[in-house]
UniProtKB/TrEMBL annotation:
Keywords: Metal-binding, Transferase, Zinc
Family matches, as Pfam families: BKACE (PF05853)
Statement: the UniProt record of this protein carries the keyword Transferase: yes
Name of the protein described by the UniProt record: 3-keto-5-aminohexanoate cleavage protein
Gene Ontology terms for molecular function: 3-keto-5-aminohexanoate cleavage activity; metal ion binding
InterPro entries, alphabetized: Aldolase_TIM, BKACE
Amino acid sequence: MSEKITLTCALTGSIHTPTMSPHLPVTPDEIAEQALAAHQAGATILHLHARDPATGKPSAKTEDFMRFLPRIKQGCDAVLNISTGGSSQMTLDERLAAARAAQPEMCSLNMGSMNFGIFPLARRYETWRHDWEQPFLEATRDVVFKNTFGDIQTILADLGEGCGTRFEFECYDVGHIQTLAWFLRAGHVKPPVFVQFVLGVLGGIDASPESLMAMKGTADRLMGNAYRFSVLAAGRHQMPLGTMGAIIGGNVRVGLEDSLTDGNSRELARSNAAQVGRMRKIVETLGFEIATPDEARAILGLKGGDRVAF
């Protein structure tokens, strides 16, 4: 608990759609501007997905990532973390294309296949800005997010061994921690292991204090001192469980990918920076300090921003 807290901001993701919030960044300009503002507000790591700039639909195209990655790198020293999760409706090669090209310091890596149900969100809206939105959400009733042991091995080999990239290992349930611990024991993953406990996605573990403690207890038992963790809680649980994560010795993730609202209210957050600023204030009020990007690089064993391909 003596280490400083790493504050991650997940800017746009592939769950929420443009109808849900006018503040969700979609275009390269919006993503870059909100990324720089989030860093200025205190974000150490910026977790990045891309969108089709015309429609806002989640995109895996390398060119869409490259429209904002260099601009963010030039504008700040934050650690840039590229998603390999994309969406459940993309193939593995599509999901990996941008990361293979960019060779970033860090990527996310979902630690298993799972039902990833975002279809309940469709019930909240009667009209849509774009024709793709409602079918995209409804498709998740029957589409499984696929990351087999073989897929995980491919990602570790291509990006970890091939590019020196390290990972934010996203664990949506206790079984994902078991899988990560196996890769660690087998020598395919080297410490320090950075684990993101993902709480509140339909198909994974629920967002509750009890679930967070179950995840931490399992990780403690299986990985001991070889790992560090962060807490991501969906929707209204974002701030309370993030706060709990900081108190019990972890790091925190916020951002419009995970919640569109401002704290526990029903009001829409006006930006990613607003959420970062709120969480930073909570963390500092509790007596903790936010890590700088270079401090996070040292803690997590990252290769440095000068060794990426963008």
